[in-house]
């Protein structure tokens, strides 16, 4: 079992910045890809950014150049630095973590979500 604890959401004015963190804990063999998704009211959950164990990254087109994903493998933590925030970035942000369990099978886990609200 893996627990993901998110932090860093909040209310910010347009043009401002926030940094989200997500720490994984529990019993597993290794952590594979970590990522951030978001879901705005009335919309489907979408990928914001993802990062592999080796540091390869992928971003949604809407956040490229503004958001940066990073991870600290020693701390089992993934971060999302969000700059130049826009009102359309308002959503609940969810951390996602793919792990290899001690049974060598892969599992996906989700954080509880953290609200990001950008005012105009």
Description:
This protein has no helices and eleven strands. The protein has 120 residues and is mostly beta strands. The radius of gyration is 14 Å and the shape is elongated. The mean pLDDT is 96.
In sequence order, what are the helices and strands, one letter per element?
EEEEEEEEEEE
Strand content: over 45%
Helix content: under 10%
Structural class: mainly beta
Ends apart, CA distance between termini: 40 Å
Shape: elongated
In oligomeric terms, what are we looking at?
A: single chain
Q: Low-confidence runs (pLDDT<50, min 5 residues)?
A: none
Q: What is the typical, i.e. mean, pLDDT?
A: 96
Q: How many beta strands in the DSSP annotation?
A: 11
Give the helices and strands, then pairings.
Layout: E1 2-7, E2 10-13, E3 18-26, E4 30-39, E5 46-51, E6 57-59, E7 67-72, E8 77-82, E9 91-100, E10 106-110, E11 114-119
Parallel strand pairs: 2-11
Antiparallel strand pairs: 1-3, 3-8, 4-5, 4-9, 5-6, 7-8, 9-10, 9-11
Structure keywords:
120 residues, mainly beta, 7-stranded mixed sheet, 4-stranded antiparallel sheet, 11 strands, elongated
Summarize the structure.
The chain is mostly beta strands and 120 residues long. It is built from no helices and eleven strands.
């Amino acid at each position: 079992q893996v627990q993901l604890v998110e932090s860093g959401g909040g209310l910010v004015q347009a043009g401002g910045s926030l940094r989200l963190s997500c720490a994984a804990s529990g019993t597993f063999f290794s952590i594979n890809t970590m990522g951030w998704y978001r879901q705005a009211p009335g919309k489907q959950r979408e990928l914001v950014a993802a990062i592999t164990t080796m540091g390869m990254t992928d971003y949604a087109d809407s956040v490229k150049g503004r958001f940066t994903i990073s991870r600290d493998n020693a701390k089992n933590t993934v971060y999302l630095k969000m700059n130049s925030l826009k009102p359309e970035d308002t959503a609940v942000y969810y951390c996602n973590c793919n792990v290899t369990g001690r049974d060598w099978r892969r599992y996906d886990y989700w954080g509880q979500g953290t609200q990001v609200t950008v005012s105009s």
